[in-house]
């Protein structure tokens, strides 16, 4: 999905969005891609440690971060509604919380 959104932003929206909004769209797809890969890693870790509450929580935090962080950036880039930028950091905190859970889960494994 992040590849499709990134390609859509880079090609289809290039003429209709400002460079600033294209960069915002790119940031959203970039972080979505990174954390989609992190979700894949968490799924693999859960295969080996199925009872790990930390890995499970990390996965859910990454999903929430993708929806809130990347989603708000996508909507912001398409609509220009600057108020949406206020919720983007919540998604960033979800990403950070997910990485902390991965670290703690790895230390406890």
Write a structural description.
By secondary structure, the protein is mainly alpha-helical. It has one domain (2-108). Helices cover 82% and strands 0% of the residues. It is built from 4 helices and no strands. Helix 1 runs antiparallel to helix 2 (19-48), helix 2 (19-48) packs antiparallel against helix 3 and helix 3 (53-79) runs antiparallel to helix 4. It is elongated. The N and C termini lie far apart (31 Å). The model has no long low-confidence stretch (mean pLDDT 91).
Keywords for this entry:
0% strand; 4 helices; 109 residues
What is the structural class? Answer: mainly alpha
Count of individual helical segments: 4
Helix proportion range: over 70%
Order of helices and strands: HHHH
What is the domain tally? Answer: 1
Q: Which ranges are low-confidence, i.e. pLDDT below 50, for 5 or more consecutive residues?
A: none
Task: Summarize the biggest pleated sheet.
Answer: none
């Amino acid at each position: 999905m992040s590849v499709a959104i990134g390609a859509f932003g880079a090609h289809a929206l290039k003429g209709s969005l400002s460079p600033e909004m294209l960069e915002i769209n790119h940031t959203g797809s970039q972080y979505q891609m990174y954390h989609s890969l992190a979700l894949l890693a968490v799924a693999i870790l859960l295969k080996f440690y199925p009872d790990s509450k930390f890995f499970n929580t990390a996965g859910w935090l990454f999903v929430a971060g993708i929806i809130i962080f990347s989603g708000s950036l996508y909507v912001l880039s398409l609509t220009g509604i600057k108020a949406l930028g206020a919720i983007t950091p919540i998604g960033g905190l979800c990403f950070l919380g997910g990485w902390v859970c991965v670290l703690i889960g790895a230390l406890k494994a």
